[in-house]
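Lecture notes, part 5. Sequence design as translation. It can be helpful to think of inverse folding as translation between two languages: the language of shapes and the language of residues. The source text, in structure tokens, appears below.
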């Protein structure tokens, strides 16, 4: 499971411009359970949006449950305790994402990048260097 996520996140992190998922990414997501697919699809969207944000961060890892478990309701996930890594540092992240019923297409997405996570908090929140 982690290898699938790593491959999908790596793909999202290197995208030069916003694009639809390619067939390989879609196949990987389709192989996941519906709830996992929802989280992974929204995590990919977060990575892509951050990558294109004017702040100039380069996300290469995202943990949706780092500080708080995401709230999932139907086709919507709200993650107020997420974190992402960019250039070797972790940052707080919150996002709300709604997808199509098959969890393959993002319909709405809002996010907010927070402060850098102190190194002393990394281990207790599943954040690896």
């Amino acid at each position: 499971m982690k290898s699938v996520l790593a491959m999908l996140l790596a793909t999202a992190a290197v995208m030069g411009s916003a694009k639809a998922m390619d067939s390989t990414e879609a196949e990987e997501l389709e192989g996941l359970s519906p709830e996992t697919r929802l989280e992974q699809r929204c995590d990919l969207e977060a990575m892509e949006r951050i990558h294109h944000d004017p702040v100039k961060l380069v996300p290469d890892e995202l943990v949706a449950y780092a500080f708080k478990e995401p709230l999932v309701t139907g086709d919507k996930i709200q993650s107020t305790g997420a974190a992402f890594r960019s250039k070797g540092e972790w940052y707080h992240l919150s996002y709300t994402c709604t997808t199509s019923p098959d969890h393959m297409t993002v319909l709405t997405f809002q996010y907010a990048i927070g402060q850098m996570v102190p190194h002393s908090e990394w281990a207790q929140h599943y954040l690896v260097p």
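The translated text above is only one of many valid answers, since several sequences can fold into similar shapes. The first strand starts at residue 59 and ends at 63.
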